[in-house]
Amino acid sequence: MTSPTRSCIAWLVLFTTACTGQEITLRLANWASLEEMDLDRAAISEFERLHPGIHVLYEPNPGRQYEEKLLTGLAAGAAPDVFLLDSKLIPTFTNKNVLLDLTPFIAPLNIDTTQWFSNVLAIARRGDSLFAFPKGFTPLMVYYNREMFRRAGIPFPRDNWTWNDYLLTARRLTRDLNGDGTTDTYGTTFTNYYFYWIVWVWSAGGDVVDPLGMRATGLLNSPPTELALHFLIDLRRQGYAPDVGSWVQAEKTGMNTQLFANGSTAMLLDGHWRMPVFIKYVREGRLDIGVAPLPRHPSGGRTNVMYESGWCVPVDASHPKEAAELAAFMAGSFAARVRSSQFLELPAVRAIAEEIVAADTTGWEAAFFREVPFCRQPWGSKIERFSEIEWTLQDAVDEVMLKEAPMHETMTAYAARIDRELESIRSHEKMTFAPIRQHTEILGMLAAVAVTVGGLVFLLYLRAERRFRSGTARAIGFLGPSMVHLCVFLLTPMAFSAYLSVHRWDIVVPDTPFIGLENFREMAADPLFWNALTNTLAFSLNVPAGMALALGMALLLHRRFRGVAALRALYFLPSVMSFVAIALVWMWIYHPTFGAANYLLSFVGLPPLQWLNDTQTAMLSVVVFTVWLGMGYQMVIFLAGLQGIPEELYDAARIDGAGSWQRFKRITVPMLKPTTFFILITSLIGSFQTFTSIYVMTAGGPVGSTDVIVYHIYKAAWEQLRMGYASAMAWVLFILIMIASWIQFRVVGRNIDYS
Amino acid sequence: MVLPFLWMVSTALMTELEVYQFPPKFFPSQWVWSNFTEALTLQPFARFFLNTVIVAAATTVAQLIVCSLAAFAFARLHFPWREKIFAGYLSTMMVPAIVTIIPSFLIINAFGWMNTYQALASPMLSSVWGIFLLRQFFLTIPRELEDAARIDGANDLQVLWRVILPLSRPALATLAIFAFMGAWKDFLWPLLVTNRIDMRTVEVGIANFSSMYQTDWPHQMAAAVVVMTPIVVLFLFLQRHFIRGITMTGLKG
User: Fold this and answer.
1) How close, in Å, is residue A99 to chain B by CA atoms?
2) What is Dmax (Cα atoms) for chain B?
3) Which of B99, B113, B168 to mutate to test the interface with A (most CBs of A within 10 A)?
4) Do B103 and A442 touch (CB under 8 A)?
């Protein structure tokens, strides 16, 4: 062989190995729990075995922050190649063209779309396009405690049971077992959570919006819808369902599951995802359960809902074909079979669902399976930003249930409000802009900020009089590191959000059209924004009270005595502990039926309060929690401040015969002023920005009574994907805090004598 | 004050069934110590601890240095626009983190820092809160001490190091605690800038016990108890700086 030929062949070989041997890496993300992760990994390694050139990076994010994570990734153009999507995000994502249409890959990749339940597949279908391969789903079923039914001599529910059967059963199973006048076991549970009650409305033949999703009036305030809500609220009023607080409380604490699992409630309407917990108890012989469908209403047919998730590929995926293949595989029968050992859902693959039913001897899976043909698509998977409407609907139920407002008038008023909200959502989507696709370049903004700040610093140097030049240069040196940091991580993000406040940005798409002051105009006209603002101001009143308490504590604990270290640590504990854990304990404390707070009230002969679930007391409850939580922080800083007061001053005062009150007033208070000022400013800023406690404990409810401004901003940004509007609100808040701080600097700050 | 803590510990020692007892039990009927070992082995917690220690230590050291320098300039040096620049610093505290977190993420992503320690630590290397705190304390230190040092020929850095910092131990201890704790308890940021499990931090590890469907209380509480222990130890170690009389001994006369 001649050498040119040889080198040609060598090149050819090299070239082909480079093409075929080049490993493609795909990132795959979902919200798998710890138990699911190994099953996912098993499915992924099977995929890798079948596709040698493809390497899959598995990125599970359990918990509720999965969405934030995914959205941020999309915002940065760094989304995973395949991700799991809850069907409630499908409308937003398809309307904004975030997802890749998977139809072109179906034929070339030999994907059999008939393997999936057709109504489950339909959730992500838009016209001829398909945007997700379905993973799994669940209807809502009535889990019932067979032991309790047996003891009460009630026959187990059958597939054709009715609302009336349900009501009678709930009544008969609500019992005072020990005859002490209080109920020990309840028939069922009910909260204002839309997620669970919509099926009852459908069952009665009603609905919350019309078939096209255009309006609520005429539907929400129609007789069947009101009948269903009345029926459910009555379960609470009659005492057949325990008062478990708001759904936020019930969900976060797992209250309803707990009550059912330990035999305090006889029936629980829930999805397949409760099965893993219940199965554990059943296997340990602690629980004997059955599964029944939603009871039928005489005037409506058999109906249910379908909560579903599916695998999607982003529209800008770098390897669309391989990603589609992976998505199809994760939705396919191999992965479905692997996952079925977790009992979290019904697989979307019909054959695997049938396998599971055949292998199950309890009849539970069969009950779920029989319900599939009656499952309807939830509104959230059809209407963009429907989660906003859900919040409003929950408020409507609370108005009637907690505030005892008349049903029809309330529903009519709320229907009108929802009509406006739907209209506003539609008009936002329809807004047209100059067709410029501009991706806001963050590094460009960073450079601009750096140049501006650098210029200002240089100007500062030039402006200094000659004799101050060297001092100014030294000051610049001292401030340098913090200034660089400030530019990158605070000023640039601030500039970015200022830019966004006059633009529109949906996070998941790169376009940021300029809309002028539209965001601010909308804000001014939004009563919910003003409500949040008022709530924030009311909330901030906790600061002085908390500070007084913390100062008292610090005064007690700044002396040297045995055990002082332990005592200090004790008071500091709330700041150290995992926030979720503490918030949960407090939600237990505030529980209307079983909580410690009401227990204490009963000791002093006061009637029980609803605490977090009453518009009158919810904010106060959060404030008490916040004061308790922030005390350690304030105390530590007061302690540090107290060390700065020379002992000699006290000695001198003692010699002059000043009493302890005099010493406190004349020495401690004035000497602590810089510290007090610091705590006041930082705590006030903190309380204007309060978010986490609201997010965890009340979600702004009931009926918006604890909706604070940053929570409002959070919802606009992460639930409605309106980052521009959120930024505009953040800037208004920013200016408000500036004014408040400026006043404090003028009023309090000026009186501080630092010498 | 202690009730929530006791509840946490006792939950950490219960079986899952017992957590779901009603009325809730405050003491486990049998102590399930294996919850702790399981909680720490179900996920690579050793790795989480290593990551978190690296980030928290870097954060604490960096904040002590950067904030001391800046606070000294604001409290002690004379330069034009001093108060205005300080107000500018303070104003950056007033923007809620919710709207700055996305741009911060965009920056880190543009730097190509995803899944790195610099991504985890860099946003916390300085803190306006810390600068404000130290400035307030530096202002209360009598000028005479500084003047004496200057007469002895000390420059700015020496004044800071020899006079100001030794007298500010309570404030530095406070800053150290909060800087360390801030990094230790941070949740959303580490979650956003890491995709790989081996780059995650302890707080993310704790949160992982809560899935979309349910929360594994015993393991979550066990992990939470273990995770908070280092901060409590650190606090106990640093709180001795809050005893009156130690710091101001140099002030006599």
Assistant:
1) 21
2) 73
3) B99
4) yes
* Structure tokens, A544: 């002085």
For residue B53 the two structure tokens come to 């220690």
- The pLDDT tens digits of the residues spanning A541-600 come to 889 999 999 999 999 888 778 888 888 888 888 888 888 778 877 887 888 877 778 888
Interface touch A475/B20, C-beta < 8 Å: no
The tens digit of pLDDT for each residue in A136-153 reads 999 999 999 999 999 999
Nearest-Cα residue of chain A relative to residue B23:
A594
The CATH H-level superfamily of A141-303+379-430 is Periplasmic binding protein-like II (3.40.190.10)
d(C-alpha A370, C-alpha A362), whole Å:
14
According to CATH, the superfamily of the domain at A520-751 is: MetI-like (1.10.3720.10)
Using a CB-CB cut-off of 8 Å, the residues of chain A touching B207 are 62-63, 65, 580
Q: Where are the domains of chain A?
A: 23-136+308-359, 141-303+379-430, 442-503, 520-751
- A126 pairs with which residues across the strands? A129
Q: How far apart are CA A107 and CA A102, in angstroms?
A: 10
Q: Which residues of B fall within a CB distance of 8 Å from A448?
A: none
pLDDT, tens digit, 9 for 90 and up, residues B225-252: 999 999 999 998 888 877 654 444 333 3
Nearest CA in chain B to A86: B212
> What letters, b where the CB count within 10 A reaches 16 and e where it falls short, cover A110-136?
ebeeebbbebbbbbbbeeeebbbbbbb
**Residue found under tokens 């300085």:** B126
Which positions in chain B touch A733 (Cβ < 8 Å)?
Answer: 94, 96
The CATH classification of domain A23-136+308-359, taken from the options 3.30.420.40, 3.40.190.10, 3.40.50.11030, 3.30.70.260: 3.40.190.10
Provide the 8-state DSSP code for A206: -
C-alpha neighbours within 13 Å on the C-beta side of residue A358: 6
Single-letter residue type at A561: F
Q: Tell me what ipTM this predicted complex has.
A: 0.91
Could you say which of A280, A636, A726 has the minimum Cβ distance to residue B99?
Answer: A726
